[in-house]
């Protein structure tokens, strides 16, 4: 048993693991004999308190990344909030006991870590982490890294600036709910429109949308109004390009790309979280968790099944762990 300050680190831990690719409900198993990952010089070991699910976790189990990652066994999970319990020799940013959060995979779709965040402990490069905002719970903090960094990077890539208008497709989802808030509160959008199903329109308005569009009743393409930027968080760029002004930008995070739309895959950066922490601590920007809230560690399979329905509003978080 290794020790770090007041923390005693076990040699074997609980983690969700799949040893073969397939439907997560079939291949993902809870193991209790997983080795604690060794940390490299620039890494810290985090005692995981909460971990969010992302759709890439399910896609990855089904083999979506098989050409760009190591073969199973794999512990899935990108987002983490927890406590630093051990620090690598060259890691200077955090100390044992610090409460941190982040997306542990720097390049989301290229060789993500074999040992992710659906485990009691995970190892991560310190540059990918930031101190957890003091006002947020671990579950709230865990919900943020991948989606808030994706929202922020997408807006940056469109050169979004004060006074511009934006249409967000999928405004009630994990990414879209942060795009609305960042566009309005951080980037200074003059007008924010967003789409969702009927039951989520009030959520859009509460997040700051000036125009909430019910996609079950109207097509945004038919609106006379066009926007400087369209942020497609659902993977419908062939439709998204019809909502943009001439000379505007369309960014998408999934699906086929129809020019002039462009697609990107997020790069995890603790520096982005640090930049946004003041907005989170002042509650100008808020995490959005699905009404079903959190699922305990024992119910990860149920949580992933719910995620794959496409119905969640906001994020699904696994808490507490274990």
Number of DSSP helical runs: 9
> Could you spell the SSE succession in H and E letters?
EEEHEEHEEEEHHEHEHEEHEEHEHE
**Unreliable parts:** none
Secondary structural class: alpha/beta
Instruction: Give the N-terminus to C-terminus distance in angstroms.
Output: 19 Å
The general outline is globular
Report the portion of residues in β strands.
25-35%
Main sheet, how many strands, which sense, barrel?
A: 7 strands, mixed
Mean pLDDT value: 96
The count of DSSP E runs of length 2 or more, i.e. the number of strands, is 17
* Proportion of helical residues: 10-25%
Written account of the structure:
It is built from nine helices and 17 strands. By secondary structure, the protein is α/β, with parallel strands linked by helices. Strands 5, 6, 7, 8, 9, 16 and 17 form a seven-stranded mixed β-sheet that branches. A six-stranded parallel β-sheet has the order 12-11-10-13-14-15, with helices on one face. Helix 4 crosses helix 5.
